[in-house]
């Protein structure tokens, strides 16, 4: 396994048509929208759930944060889940002995802990005393900001009839209501911290799986509210040295369209302006190892309004590029 010893930044663009990328359970599960700006919001928790589910279901990787039911039908809490990784019998000689055993097994087995860290509560049986409590805490090497649409969005309210009567003997069917977005192009920013990576034993192979989970997890999230999500661009900048990054690369991408924001309905109706991005990367080229790109080919990139080949323009700015295949 190759140790992560350099910092990286990630920008991930994906879009959705006629769906709800992240419902707010405290607001009738409506799409999350910043009321002041009209921007669609998607939590980092939603993206991490997408990645976790993909790695567990499709790549066979163990994850700590997943729902497990006991024989009596109850769902494990975090303390019960932690005990799944206790490799020695209780009662323990000391609380620290059990804590260290669980921590070692957690980091060895659970890719989501290596990627995202977490706080794991513990309650362990020890000799000569009552149960002792404590926790294991790891700062995640991979951190994402809240995702934001690159344009204002329009939310539609839909009403329809259900398949069944509202109650026994009734002649009318139930009604259902839902809210969705006709279109949203969402941008996520992430950073990989090589210092925290040492603590969780994060490897470059884990990072490859992270990118796979972002791209293919988004593509394969086929539920009623998420069908229609399409990954458009995954852009990763790897730096040559530790403790350095440019920061907020997502803000160097901007959306241009002849339509007003709320009328946008397809990726073909927008262009992504990258002049600021290419200029900033070019000025910092001596500190950049390379840039990795995965694109579905649908985005039109521009530099100062002129259409360009994104990869070629990066190379002309002195940035080594690598095309990722997912």
UniProtKB/TrEMBL annotation:
- GO biological process: any one? maintenance of CRISPR repeat elements
Which domain of life, per UniProt?
Archaea
> Any idea what this protein is called?
CRISPR-associated protein, Csh2 family
The scientific name of the source species is Methanosarcina siciliae T4/M
């Amino acid at each position: 396994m190759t140790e992560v010893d350099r910092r990286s930044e990630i920008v991930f663009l994906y879009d959705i048509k006629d769906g709800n990328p992240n419902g707010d359970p405290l607001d009738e599960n409506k799409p999350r929208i910043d009321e002041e700006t009209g921007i669609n919001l998607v939590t980092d928790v939603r993206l991490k759930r997408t990645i976790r589910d993909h790695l567990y279901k499709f790549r066979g990787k163990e994850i700590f944060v997943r729902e497990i039911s006991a024989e009596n039908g109850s769902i494990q809490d975090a303390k019960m889940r932690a005990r799944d990784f206790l490799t020695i019998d209780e009662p323990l000689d000391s609380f620290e002995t059990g804590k260290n055993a669980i921590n070692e097994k957690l980091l060895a087995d659970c890719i989501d802990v290596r990627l995202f860290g977490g706080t794991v509560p513990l309650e362990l049986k020890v000799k000569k005393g009552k149960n002792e409590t404590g926790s294991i805490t790891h700062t995640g090497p991979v951190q994402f900001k809240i995702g934001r649409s690159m344009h204002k969005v329009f939310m539609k309210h839909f009403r329809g009839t259900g398949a069944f009567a509202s109650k026994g003997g009734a002649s009318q069917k139930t009604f259902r209501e839902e809210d969705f977005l006709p279109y949203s192009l969402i941008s996520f920013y992430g950073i990989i911290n090589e210092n925290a990576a040492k603590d969780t034993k994060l490897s470059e192979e884990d990072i490859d799986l992270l990118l796979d989970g972002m791209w293919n997890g988004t593509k394969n999230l086929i539920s009623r509210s998420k069908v229609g999500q399409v990954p458009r661009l995954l852009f990763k900048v790897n730096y040559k040295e530790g403790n350095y990054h440019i920061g907020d690369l997502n803000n160097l991408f901007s959306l241009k369209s002849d339509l007003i924001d709320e009328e946008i309905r397809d990726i073909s109706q927008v262009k992504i302006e990258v002049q600021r991005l290419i200029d900033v990367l070019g000025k910092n080229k001596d500190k950049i190892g390379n840039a990795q790109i995965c694109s579905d080919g649908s985005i039109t990139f521009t530099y100062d309004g002129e259409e360009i080949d994104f990869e070629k323009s990066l190379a002309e700015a002195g940035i080594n590029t690598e095309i990722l295949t997912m």
